Amino acid sequence: MPKRTDKRGIIEELKSIFKEYPTVGLAPLYRVKASQLHEIRRKLRGVVLLKVSKNTLVKIALKELMENGEFKGADALFKYLEGQNILIFTKEDPFKLAKMLDEVKIPSFARPGDIAPEDIVIQEGNTGLPPGPLVSEFNEVGLPARIVSGSIWISKTTVVAKKGDVISDKLASVLAKLGVKPVKVGLNFKVAYSDGLVYPMEMLKLDIESYKNEFLKAWENAFKLALALKYPTPETLPIILIECRSTSLRLALSLEYLTPETLPLLIQKALTETSIISSLVFKAEGSEKRKVEKEELSKEEKKEREEEEIGLASLFG
């Protein structure tokens, strides 16, 4: 499509692009360099169309479309048309567009005042930097450093900034000298419009891992409930069948109902019970025998005592 320089031409071009693409996003150009924007264009070529235009011309184009019954509700975008912006056109849905833009963000050096997106960790080892004032600069930001063999070494792996910390002037300078690029620069949505609906930035930030964990937890709860209700599904049926077989086998054994599965178990049970009974009988017989022997022994002892008493009596009679 040829470029138009006159205002009316630009408005008509914008209207044509709005009609072609059902989804449009709006992002600020803050901190995005021309080289970075070029790289983003290259990575998203064929999927996304990027267009920079004056806010007033964008508003006029949208107003004229709405007057013709198109782009209903697009006037909700007007409050976001402040500062320098870039229009992001695509045929994808806003959530997929937000994900794509996040994936093509480019690592960049931190500036003073930036927020650390993650913990910034500096590994111990040789920095390759020559000795000098840098040693004291490193120490000032909490980075232990020493001179070894003519270069600066980091003595210990250190977290110089935690996620959410504001990066100071000194830390930004040290990170740049170490070649560390802790922040990612790219296009961040202010808002998106698609099929009559407006999506603020907060709605477009999806925590995929959090959603995955929630879905997994929901699946586990549904699985447990289906098992408790004996509700057959491809996932629960094998376990339900195992439980049913186990229950029916226990019932058949308790009723001594003969089947190919219960017969060996019932025979084993009978043999075990027979062995136990035999053992008890043997113990009972042994106990009775010992009792009889004890009684007989007692009679003999009594007889002997009586005979002894008679013998003594005859001596003194």
Account of the 3D structure:
By secondary structure, the protein is of the alpha+beta class. The protein folds into three domains: 7-105 and 186-206, Ribosomal protein L10, N-terminal RNA-binding domain (Alpha-Beta Plaits, 2-Layer Sandwich); 120-180, Ribosomal protein L10, N-terminal fragment, domain II (Molybdopterin biosynthesis moea protein, domain 2, Alpha-Beta Complex); 211-254, no CATH class. It has ten helices and twelve strands. The chain has helices spanning 7-20, 34-43, 55-67, 94-103, 134-140, 169-177, 201-204, 208-228, 237-254, 262-315, and strands at residues 23-28, 48-51, 85-90, 106-108, 120-122, 125-126, 145-148, 151-154, 158-161, 183-185, 191-194, 197-200. The strands form four sheets. It has a five-stranded antiparallel beta sheet. A hairpin with a 2-residue loop joins strand 11 and strand 12. The longest helix has 54 residues, at 262-315. The radius of gyration is 45 Å and the shape is elongated. It starts with 6 loop residues before the first helix and ends with a helix. The mean pLDDT is 84.
